[in-house]
Design brief:
Immunoglobulin-like; 5-stranded antiparallel sheet; 3-stranded antiparallel sheet; 8 strands; elongated; HSP20-like_chaperone; CS domain-containing protein; NudC_fam
Length: 158
């Protein structure tokens, strides 16, 4: 049932008409997906994740991405992998349940409607996690959706 509340599609960060990366999020993680240029050996790619910053590039060149993150992450469980010409960066949210409007501070913010949809999906994901056995995939909110991070005293630690 929880998989019904997983992100249905990713969001794209487009700059100057070109896709920089795609991203999605869960209660605990923000995932970034970067298409890698062809014909570059995999061992030349690098990614550095700090609690408030991410840097991605090809060794010996100016970084492709070199930005502050929208919110702090846990560096001990954030990581990156390369597979099928995609760099997948998993950022573990420091504050579980926090709804991100973008992984990058001040860049490619979701519009208010998309941000509201993300918050609703994360709130339902929280309900699902806290109430296993119930199916919240068809649940709806009337009016404003509460913040999944702070609703009813916040997220219980696990």
């Amino acid at each position: 049932m929880a998989e019904k509340l997983a992100p249905e599609k990713s969001h794209s960060y487009i700059q100057n008409g070109q896709k920089v990366f795609d991203w999605d999020q869960t209660l605990e993680e923000v995932n970034m997906y970067i298409e890698l240029p062809p014909n570059v050996p995999k061992k030349l790619f690098h990614c550095k994740i700090d609690s408030k910053h991410v840097e991605v590039g090809i060794k010996g060149n100016t970084p492709y991405l070199n930005h502050d993150l929208a919110f702090p992450v846990k560096t001990d469980c954030s990581f990156w992998t390369l597979e099928d010409n995609i760099m997948h960066i998993t950022l573990h949210k420091r504050d579980k349940g926090q709804t991100w409007s973008s992984p990058i501070m001040g860049q490619a913010q979701l519009d208010p409607y998309a941000a509201d949809l993300e918050q609703r999906r994360l709130m339902l994901q929280r309900f699902q996690e806290e109430n296993p056995g119930f199916d919240f995939s068809q649940a709806q909110f009337t009016g404003n959706c509460p913040d999944p991070k702070t609703f009813m005293g916040g997220i219980r630690s696990g």
